[in-house]
Amino acid sequence: MAYENILLEKKNSIAYVTINRPTKLNALNMATMEELRTAFTDIKDDASIRVAIITGSGEKAFIAGADIGELAKHNAVSAKEYTHRGQSVLDLIENLGKPVIACINGYAFGGGCELAMACTMRLASDNAKLGQPEVKLGIMPGYGGTQRLPRLVGKGIAMQMNLAGEPITAQEAHRIGLVNEVTAQADLIPRAEAIAAKIVANAPLAVQYAMEAVNKGMEMTLAEGLYLEAVLFGVCCATEDKTEGTTAFLEKRPAQFKGK
Length: 260
Ligand code: COA
Fold this sequence. Notes:
This protein is α/β, with parallel strands linked by helices. Helices cover 47% and strands 16% of the residues. The chain folds into two domains: 6-200, 2-enoyl-CoA Hydratase, Chain A, domain 1, CATH 3.90.226.10; 204-250, Orthogonal Bundle (Lyase 2-enoyl-coa Hydratase, Chain  A, domain 2).
């Protein structure tokens, strides 16, 4: 498919998704969201891809939020539908079965911060700014800012970010656990690639099930989550890769995983 608002490249088991609306600071209109749905469905179904990296084009913005020009036109009914559609794209990213690394290379506001939070992990460049400024526009977060943010950083800080709407620096985002690491802008993609390479070397099904255990377990009681973990651990032990991984260790050689 020809994309107009994003770029999709594939190289060495990694899919690179770039939001490409630099004149709008990569703001997310619905056309962009639908292109993301198509791209991530493609990534999910492509067995040669093990990790995705998502970033924004240019040096200024990751994503400066939902497209305010589009938002301005919504009524109650269309806004509810719009929010469900957008949320379903972020759910697809969160539950892709493959890690998605957000490389936050500048502003990540509103839907940009929310999209990053749906990713498996977040790296930020040292010029990045993150925030949920929706209340300044008379609206509130609609792509998970009231749900994923408190789960990531705790209720108090999430309330402050959602209610005051003030942006925070990359360093502050790192301090509160909103991003995993902060790098120079030029090092952002190489650092994500280095993490991706570590993941690609590991057993695909084990990676997938570990992600499922964390994602589903976050919605369960501890006892339910531990039960899920035990079941998925059992499934891992039925894979060819478990036999290969443990045998390779005992034979003191690198494992050759097949994702089976
Ligand atoms: N939706 C639509 N267009 C956006 C946008 C958004 N979320 N964010 C930026 N743009 C557009 C601007 O309208 C401007 O377009 P124009 O050149 O046609 O006028 C262009 O991107 C550049 O933005 P500009 O505001 O001139 O850049 P800046 O460096 O002065 O400021 C920001 C950058 C991010 C601080 C500022 O653009 C901003 O506050 N954006 C809105 C952030 C927001 O509230 N996001 C949540 C939306 S729910």
